[in-house]
Amino acid sequence: MKRKTIALLGNPNVGKTSLFNRLTKLNQKVGNYPGITVDKRIGSLKANETEYKIIDLPGTYTLFPNSLDEEVVFNILSNRSNEDFPDLTVVVTEPSSINRGVVIYQQVRELGLPAIFVINMIDEVDQKGLHVDYTALENYLQTKVVQTNARSGKGIDQLIQHFDIELKPYFGAFDLPQKYQNALKDARQLFPLATEYLTWQYLAQDSVSSLPPEKTAALQKIRQSHQLDTQELQKDESISRHDKVANDLAPIISKKENKRLSITDKIDNLLIHPVLGYVIFFGLLFLIFQAIYSWAGPLMDGIDTLFASLSDAVAAALPEGPLSALLVNGVIAGIGGIVIFLPQIVILFLFIAIMEETGYMSRVVFLMDRWLRPFGLNGKSVIPLMSGAACAIPAVMSARNIENPKERLLTILVTPFMTCSARLPIYIVIIGLVIPDETFLGFNLQGITLFGMYILGVLGALLSALVLNEIIKSIRKSFLIFELPTYKVPDWKNVLNTVWEKSLGFLIGAGKIILAISIILWVLGNFGPTDRFSDPETYIAEANPEFSQEEIDHEVTAYKTEYSYLGYLGRGIEPLIRPLGYDWKVGIGLLASFAAREVFVGTMAVVYSLGEDVDIEDEGQRQTLFERMKGEINRNTGMPTYNFATGISLLLFYAFAMQCMATIGVVKRETGSWKWTLIQTGFMTGLAYLVALVAYQLLK
Amino acid sequence: MQNNITLDKLKKGEKAIIHSFKSNELPAKFYELGFTPGTAIEIKHIAPLQGPMCINIIHQDSLIAIRKKEANLILINKI
């Protein structure tokens, strides 16, 4: 069987992803492009006795890159030795933006690549009062023009039939501006094998990552000697190409009237109304979070029951011993601790995917830009920040489409401040312990505190952005430009596919680390260096001669924890956390939390000898844990461990500290820099320590 | 007809033709999305308190949002 690579290229919002899903029948995987972290979507298709590798390139308006996503497109299409270099490029467009599609189509052909032209959403041609002379268009483009409707499947087979098309050599439709000919001549010396247009692209970009440094330096020299500014080169190409395409297409595509925007216009009058727009957006946010809590609850209970019975089954099937304990209390409990967050995460991503698919998300960007700009962020930062309320891992990844490197970095750095679902169980426990269950002005105090923690997360993110904005130097000027697509009914296949990918990303990304850490913790907690650990009964009986056997048995677990490796570690950091009002037992919880916050509750349950499986949703079990924790006396102060001052101090610490290995890993991957990753971890944890310290010292 | 005012001065519902640009600072993406000389535009929405503007590029029937700061670099003739 022959093998061929097909690349899908086009503007954002032309239905390219739907087309990709149709072609590959969801037979696809998401990987990463080497060296950078833009999602690489690859699918496969068998047809025409050929195995096609289909690549869904990130949406772009031009080959000149403005963001990381767009850089990928240029790097693949400009480099014949790239493993993804296509045999055929499929340029996808939709009826109302055919001109823009032609612009990028021409750029591709002038690079020397064969391409065919697809008009997707073809059902809208009539609706929009358009008339297209397809024969004339094919002659003009010197290729096949295929009409498709990716949602209904119309035209897909025809498109596949043309994957093996043999095209005649392309005659460029665009002449490079005369005034740059001399510079271009110099540049051609550097790239004797490249097409003229590729050389021009090299000349018109500040830096091309696929070129060796000496070529980049040589190009820079040419630009200097001819006094060229890359912005101006790109501008001149864009404008003259745009004008030429508009002229050339005028006799081919005729428009009777503009009907397209009328409905979108009416909806926009409401949804981006200067006042109502915000009311609706915040109302929607409130509804989404309401839905997350009311829908996710039963699902989380179900998952909990499932893992509890799985533990029981494994415990019953295996002989009692270290292996069984490791499987039950380490592995299964660890996996259960990850899966339990899935419902909340899936629901939030479902809403976000729907908002993106319908076109509403761009309206949110429009509404929020003005309010995020003073903090050095961008309207597009809204999406990572909102996703951060579920889980920082996919949220950090969603910052990729922010063009400005500084704004993207800032967004990544502050997103982990948002109150993610892993913080919630800790908040519930601590608030339950230190905030009275009373009403104040008709509101439940505990509820208000929890809400306050969410606000604190948002404030933490925004204020840190403000501070970091002063520190980080910007390379490029900040700008914002984006298209507001017409409103559409969501393509449910796309929605589900997105939710699936993001949830899987969380499950695997966070899962690996949480699982590893829970096993390490379990080992540290279940072994000790001395016989105080291996033979606790003797020591307990020695220290408390008055204890009955029953009382001794009761003390054993707690005593073993104290003298396990974990206990030694907890006591080791005690001097550091004493000023915050914590003792070594809380210290163990904190240490464990640096792997992942959600480990805290389970660890506390171990430390207070209740066994691993404390279900915080279960009233009875929660009460037991609460009673035990309330009764704890801090050995250092002689006061209850969980009083108001330590409680607040703990809440603040958890709100700000960077306690998630998986997020640290993702930030490293996304920023490509250990420096920023460490600055972020240090900044967040330092802030947490400071705030908790001040709060405790003031309140105690 | 009012000549050579900048785009950010327009109010909601006003139409204009793009004339030229104050400087070369505007990223190429602006031209690619349709802000080219001779293009007719209409202001559709403006976010409050100096927020972004939503502009209809009439011939391609698309809605593009840009900030006032960049709109200030685009010179237009009102129609």
Structural class of chain B: mainly beta
Q: Could you name the CATH class of chain B?
A: Mainly Beta
Distance between the termini of chain A: 75 Å
Order of helices and strands of chain B: EEHEEEHE
**Overall 3D shape of chain B:** globular
Shape of chain A: elongated
Explain what you see.
Chain A has 700 residues and is α/β, with parallel strands linked by helices. Among the domains of chain A are: 2-164, Rossmann fold, CATH 3.40.50.300; 178-255, no CATH class. Helices cover 60% and strands 8% of the residues of chain A. In chain A, the strands form three sheets. Chain A has a seven-stranded mixed β-sheet, sandwiched between helices. In chain A, helix 14 runs antiparallel to helix 21 (492-526) and helix 23 crosses helix 24. The radius of gyration of chain A is 30 Å and the shape is elongated. The N and C termini of chain A lie far apart (75 Å). The model of chain A is unreliable at 33-37 (pLDDT under 50). With 79 residues, chain B is mostly beta strands. Chain B has a single domain (5-78), classed as SH3 type barrels (Roll). Chain B has helices at 28-32, 68-71; strands at residues 5-6, 15-21, 40-46, 53-57, 62-66, 74-78. Chain B has a six-stranded antiparallel β-sheet with strand order 1-6-2-3-4-5. Chain B starts with a strand and ends with a strand. The mean pLDDT of chain B is 87. Chains A and B meet through helix 3, helix 10, helix 11, helix 15 and strand 12 of A and helix 1, strand 3 and strand 5 of B. Strand 12 (481-484) of chain A pairs antiparallel with strand 5 (62-66) of chain B.
